[in-house]
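Exercise 7 asks you to align residues with tokens for two separate proteins.
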Amino acid sequence: MVLAVALLMSGQACQTATENKETMKTDENELNAIFPKGEKGSEEFFTGNAYPTSLVASDSIHTTLAGNVYFEPGARSHWHTHPSGQILIITDGVGYHQIEGQPIEVIKKGDVVKCPPNVKHWHGASPDVGLQQLYFIPNTENGIVEWMEPVTDEQYSIK
């Protein structure tokens, strides 16, 4: 299993939302950023421009990771699983989420997505509008993430 989430996290200290408020500009839209944008995520885990940042590191008391990802239009994660599942809270924009074998779901600001444990899935921005998401990975003592292959353009397109 690849413990890639730890590699994706920048380890920045959490600050108040007012200290971090900025606008993330893309060619197609503007998202009201709540948290620091972070460094561009690795092509090993993302297609397009995605910017993950750690907000809460897991420890022996709080066995939950929390972070934020900004996806520019068209950006998406690769297929992946989480041993204890994952919760996403969409804070701005429009995007997609898909569990393997099921249709793509459109997700938008205010949506909450629960990814079941050990279920292959992906998520990211729509082609024309970026996406911001908070993620929570519980029970990290069971592991964090297993990254898999990229989501193809054909898989990404809504038919």
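Second protein for Exercise 7:
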Amino acid sequence: MIRRATVLAVGRLKGWAAEGSDDYLKRLRRYFPVEVVEVPEEALNRRSPGEVLSAEAAKLLKRLPEGAHVVVLDREKGRRFSSEDLARHLNELGLSGNSHVAFVLGGPLGLSQEVLQKADARFSFGGITLPHALARVVLLEQLYRAAKINRGEKYHY
């Protein structure tokens, strides 16, 4: 299993999403350290989509942890996993020396090509489009589930 994770995300969570994220972070940190790094979301109505993606990319790339295995969330081209397969994959990453994984989530417009090109891997939660706040909660829940699976612990559905 990985030994450390960084979640690098565009935007600050509020309300139910912040509560869900905090809950899963608290649970997940029993297994390994997790840091959440939030970069400010760009105003969509003041700039073109390309300018927004470029500005967010600059902030994300500046905050990527050095030496981490970079995984971007990419609905269209990302690899889809069952929870069990994700647990196995994360275990294999840790065993192969990639003990620190940085998961990168974009804002409402997604991620720029510049960020996508920095990825060592792309993951997807399937063909549906999730709001970026919900995608973060789902990511943390799946990391927690993977940790439980890899430890042979029960997870209540």
